[in-house]
Amino acid sequence: MELTTVWFALIAVLWVGYFCLEGFDFGVGMLLPVLARNETERRVMINTIGPVWDGNEVWVLVAGGATFAAFPEWYATLFSGFYLPLLLILVALIVRGLAFEYRHKRGYDAWKGRWDLAIIWGSFVPALLWGVAFANIVAGVPIDADKEFTGTLFTLLNPYGLLGGLVTLSLFATHGAMFVALKTDGDIRHRARDLAVRIGAVAALLAVVFLVWTQMKTGTAVSAVVFVVAALALVGGLLAAMGGREGWAFIGTFVTIALAVVGLFVALFPDVMPSTTDPAYSLTTTNAAATAYTLKVMTWVAVVFTPIVLGYQAWTYWVFRRRIAVHHIPSAELAETPAS
Amino acid sequence: MDVLDIARWQFGIITVYHFLFVPLTIGLTAVIAGLETAWVRTGKEDYLRLTKFFGKLFLINFAIGVVTGIVQEFQFGMNWSDYSRFVGDVFGAPLAVEGLLAFFLESTFLGLWIFGWDKLPRGMHAGCMWLVHLGTLASSWFILAANSWMQHPVGYRYNAEAGRAELIDFWAVMFNKVQVVTFPHVIFTAYMTAGTFLLGVSAYLYMKKEHEADRPMYHRAIRIGAVITLLAGIGVAVTGDLQGKVMTEVQPMKMAAAEGLYETSDSCAPFSVLTLGTPDGKEEKFAVTVPCLLSFLGTGSFDGKVEGINPLREQYAETYGSDPSSKAFTEGDYTPVIPVTYWSFRFMMGLGFFAAAGAALILWLTRKGRTPGVRWLGVLGLSLPIATTLASSWGWIFTEMGRQPWVVFGLMTTESGVSPGVSVFEAATSLVVLTALYAVLAVIEVKLLVTYIRKGADPYEEPPRVKVGGSDDEDAPLTFAY
């Protein structure tokens, strides 16, 4: 296989990792005001993702860095073209990340309330905008002969793009609710499970419309198979949730998101950013790529270190495998004075 | 203002801001890991109290460093897309490797450290912080390799057809001669910053009546911090000197601009203590100098030759300025802004020396368990980490401004790297939004730091002894390092 194809696949893997992992912590963040009924339950929810959200977020940094290195033209066109949505995502990730670290630093309610808003909006905005961005990448955007994006913000806000945003938003919310159901105990666990099924039904509907639309636009036989399996995984996940099998339910949404991303990349290949101005201007895995030497160096690094990273990230989830319930939250943590 | 001006201001503001948090983060991970290891090995309660106290201050600082770091990676593509297209083949690789090797390590093991007090055995818990430190070192290595390549491009060839620089030797980029002196300089500075922070915060608390009972603990912390500061300070000075010599060789204009040396000095170049030039930066008006010192700093010999700004300007114009279609061509000239390079160089060194001198003074005042009888100890102590942090800022302002008008020395000017497709509206929105957000965050973080420093270290609390994954008591409340 060509190294450019290998790197296209590796970048797909990085986005799969990002959406499957940060997807659920976006979901937990968005559902904070919906699922948690009091401060202790909010602490329970935040603590389910507390040790892992930052590690999850690194996937997008590596995806960005790998795109820069393996497909410099793709990185340059995408980041300068999708300027304002990316700025919004940056602001959201900044306030959200700080909220997780600073929320517990003061005891008074107004302080916590403001950081809660940062968590909620900071999770909602990227969950929506990543979908808009990806849908537009797959559908194509105006790109000129110099590989420059020639549209505006409103070019991206087309019906297909917005639907893509709603799909990621609803899928991540479902995924997050499944995660809360899996990682907590007591009343909140049951509420999370019920909510996951309800949001999941909406997500399934939106996702099917979106995937069929994508298939009609740019799909191949392979992407069709992948999309069908993704849809089945979602249905399976929802059924598992209804049956009280939280582990399987979470695996269901995990697989759904992973396969949806894989399907989009399959539909995209061999383009990386198709041009709607003229197909000849499209960025492809070959005309956007770095040199064979750079790709070779990076391949060695990836082959050696990716398994190590996966190993210790998986170990972290194992260390924090216990469910968290209301009685695990130390009462001193809730006091009015600065938390100790 | 055009997009270029806005993008330059944004890069300057966003990067200097980010780096206010970086050296302390790098250095404190080592200090905290060291304190925790000392506790694991000796069982002394004070070491655990200091670990937890400085751990909390570290987390407040680290959070901003992380979130502002995301912007760094995005803004190359957003504001500097032509730069990204030109250098991506060379510059992208260290960035990607940094993410894979360093960011995962830092974030994952920090999560384990914060939430793992009741989930991991003690030695393993301390080991997590050592791994975070290893991650910060790896991160520094790769990002500084990328920056060093911009100062002194090596291991590449220029592909005229593709119009870009292409990597031909990864190891040459990793062990660039600028990199091998810059990395230790930055890391020693980080240790110095953490040393002054440990010293300064402890000195402040030592002087407070309400923390009188903890004086022996803070006394010890002051001494540890002072020793770290001085040892690291020696490292900073030695590596800084080496950097000067490499710079004189590969970026003579930057050295000349640092000194306000307008004409070439064939031997015994003077070191300027104060030089004032004409407003157009072309001529020296007034100077106070130390004879021959610059020759020594730049070449290692008192009669070494140091080139001056004016002859270099002509030489660069001849070499790079003939082809207007080249990315190395500029309408302006090939001189950086002399007052900025001249003063930033001096602020960097002055603040660094001040911090080292302050640490030495406090070390002497606290010798043999002595209680210093001076009231200003706390104020002096707290001024030291501020001085080292600002010294880092000035150092970066110097090294980046001194490279101008280049973004990649000799290959590409900064003005040709800017994104051609980005509008003034977009760039200005980004600059305003990020600057305003960063300002608010700075206020919040300083207030939090002050609150938590004032409180001092919490009383000793014995952490549970557990195996991996937690104790057998499934109902025990969780323990966090928040």
Low-confidence stretches of chain B at least 5 residues in length (pLDDT < 50)? none
| Low-confidence region ranges of chain A | 335-340
What class, by secondary structure content of chain B?
mainly alpha
Main sheet makeup of chain A: 2 strands, antiparallel
Q: Total number of helical segments of chain B? A: 13
Using only C-alpha atoms, the radius of gyration of chain B works out to 24 Å
Largest sheet of chain B: 2 strands, antiparallel
Count of extended strands of chain A: 2
If you average the pLDDT of chain A, what whole number results?
93
By oligomeric state, this entry counts as: heterodimer
Rg value of chain A: 20 Å
Q: Determine the structural class of chain A based on helices, strands and strand pairing.
A: mainly alpha
Strand order of the largest sheet of chain B: 1-2
Chain-averaged pLDDT of chain B? 91
Strand content of chain B: 5-15%
Helix-strand sequence of chain B: HHHHEEHHHHEEHHHHEEH
Written as H for each helix and E for each strand, in order along the chain, the element string of chain A is HHHHHHHHHHHHEEH
Describe this structure in words.
The complex is a heterodimer of chains A (340) and B (482). Helix content of chain A is 75%, strand content 1%. Chain A has 13 helices and two strands, in the order H-H-H-H-H-H-H-H-H-H-H-H-E-E-H. In chain A, strands 1-2 form a two-stranded antiparallel ribbon. Chain B has 482 residues and is mainly alpha-helical. Chain B contains 13 helices and six strands. In chain B, the strands form three sheets. Chain B has a two-stranded antiparallel sheet with strand order 1-2. A two-stranded antiparallel sheet of chain B has the order 3-4. In chain B, helix 6 packs antiparallel against helix 12 and helix 7 runs antiparallel to helix 11 (338-365). The radius of gyration of chain B is 24 Å and the shape is globular.
